[in-house]
Each structure stands twice: as C-alpha cells, then as structure tokens.
Specification:
By secondary structure, this protein is α/β, with parallel strands linked by helices. The chain has 7 helices and 12 strands. The longest helix has 15 residues.
Length: about 325
C-alpha cells in the first residue's frame, strides 16, 4: 500500500493510510491548519466504510424489483444543479447533449433562492425547468466549494418522479439513458474513470425519490458531525457510506473523466463512455483548440457544420 501526495492531488491505494499521510503533510507544511481537523479525519475514518442497517436503519420506498415501474408507467427526469454563473456554459452543453441523445427526458435545474442573477435564471428557463430548493450546506476543509454540493440531496424529495438521473452540470451525455431506469434498485452510481481513484463519484447517480430516505439522511447529518465528511468529499463520501451495502455500482462508462480517456476516447476498461465528466478540466476553460472540443455539444454545433459521431441519436 502506498500514497503519493502531489499538492492537493492524492492518489490512494489504501484510503486510511493515504488520508493520514495527506493530512500529516498538510499539518506539517501549513501550521495554520488546525490539529482539530486532523482529529476530525480520524473520527470520520472510525465511522466505518458503510452504513450498517442494524445500527442505522434506513427506510426505503422500494427494494430490488419492487422499484421497477409497470411498463410505460414510469415518470423519469434528469436533474442537475447550478450554484454559480460560471457553470452556465457547462449547463448549456449538458442540455444540448441530452436533447440529442435523450430528448424524451425533462431537464430540471436545482438552485438556491437569491443566489443566481436574474438574467441567468431567465436563460435557464428557456431550455429547462428552473426549481429553487432549500439550501443544505456543511463546511468542507478539503475543497471549500464541496460545502455547497449537499443541497443535491433535495432530489430525494422530488417524488412526482419514479426515477431521477442526477448529473453534475459539468457532464455531457453521449448515449441513451433509458436502460438505467430499468435497474432493480433505488440507488446506483459509478466509480470515476480513473484507476487510482477507488471511491464512488457523484457525477452520475440514478435514484428513486423517497421522502422518508431524505428525512433519514438529514437526521443523520443533524446529529452526527462525522457524517459531514468535512475532510473528504462531502455528499459524495456521505452517499458512498449511506448506500455502501444497498446501492448498485455501475461501470466507469457512466462517469468517464475525460482526463483518463485513452487515445480512441475509450475508458480505462476499453469501452465507449455513456457520459463524460469534466471533473478536473472544466468546460468553461475549453476552446476549439482543446482536444476535448468535440464533446462540447452546444458550442460544437454552433461553430461547425459537421456532425459529431459521438452523440448517439435515440432509436
């Protein structure tokens, strides 16, 4: 087991060893980092890998095959979030890719009241449903902006839908998602397409909305600070813990980090991605000279008469 720490980018084989090493370096090199944070790291690791039902029982609105709607009866949607105008460019590319690959699915954009400029809200309303939801926020010492990601949990309250695919705004969908709604589970997500990352990533989640589950998650977060995962990956770490023993893990093709695609555009497993994720190289930093330009659906089709083969039209 080993851990390589290069600035803020840590590649881990063993989560516990690497987390300790990473925070030892931060404490050693930056005296302004409180020892209290290091204690919080140890407390979070001691919390265990996953939620054990006998100790922390969760209500569930459906189990396995019971989650499948009757043929033709399901009501599905794609949900994403917007907390900064900077991500508007990314959101337009996501919407464009969905329009080309999954035009039957409504796109709903979650936001917090009084956070976005009125002109951004108006622009979103031209191509998606804009919906303001309660803010959920917990401090994160790993990456500050992660503290704002918790409000995505509001997707579990959208019970007018049978199923939801919850996507980060910096993603692009390349193929149909219809089959995802047929999975016999109430929760599914994917590892990131990077062999050295061994945690689930929140860029792609399929969930069955369930208000009792949301209430249970919020109760845990209110009463147990270690479940804020404030030194790790916020809601991603929490959901990984919460659904560790009940959720489905999907292949990397559902969350393919573009930085780790091979020369032919395939994942580490050699398969064509269903969704690509700009987790490190944000879409608003990419122009026509960039090797990932062809993934920029909205801007690609605006600037070129060519048709990209990577967006698979629905049958």
């Amino acid at each position: 087991m080993y851990c390589i720490d290069v600035g803020m980018a840590t590649m881990a084989i063993n989560d516990i060893v690497c987390t300790c090493v990473r925070w030892w370096f931060r404490l050693h090199l930056a005296n302004t980092v409180s020892v209290v944070i290091f204690v919080a790291v140890l407390a979070e690791m001691a919390a265990g890998k996953g939620r054990v039902s006998s100790e922390n029982y969760s209500p569930r609105c459906c189990v396995t095959a019971d989650c499948l709607p009757a043929a033709g009866a399901g009501h599905h949607a794609v949900v994403t979030s917007l907390r900064s105008p900077d991500y508007m460019v990314s959101l337009r590319d996501l919407q464009c890719s969905l329009q080309r690959t999954n035009p039957q699915l409504p796109l709903i954009v979650l936001a917090v009241a009084n956070e976005l400029p009125s002109e951004i809200i108006a622009e979103v309303q031209h191509f998606a449903e804009y919906r303001e939801v309660p803010n959920i926020e917990y401090d994160n010492f790993n990456v500050h902006r992660y503290s704002k990601n918790w409000f995505k949990l509001n997707a579990w309250n959208m019970t007018e839908f049978t199923s939801i695919v919850l996507l980060d705004a910096d993603t692009v969908v390349l193929q149909s998602l219809d089959h995802v709604f047929e999975l016999p589970t109430d929760f599914a997500w994917s590892f990131q397409n990077a062999p050295e990352y061994n945690w689930n990533k929140g860029g792609f989640i399929m969930l069955r909305p369930c208000q009792p589950v949301l209430e249970h998650m919020l109760s845990i977060l209110e009463h147990d600070d270690t479940k804020h995962f404030s030194t790790e990956f916020a809601e991603q770490s929490f959901l990984s813990w919460y659904f560790e023993y009940t959720g489905y893990r999907l292949p990397m093709i559902y969350n393919a980090n573009v930085n780790f695609l091979n020369a032919s555009g395939a994942t580490a497993g050699g398969a064509d991605p269903i969704m690509v994720h700009f987790a490190d190289n944000k879409l608003f930093n990419i122009n026509e000279s960039h090797p990932y330009w062809h993934f920029m659906c909205h801007r690609y089709y605006e600037s070129s008469q060519h048709h990209s083969h990577i967006f698979v039209d629905p049958v």
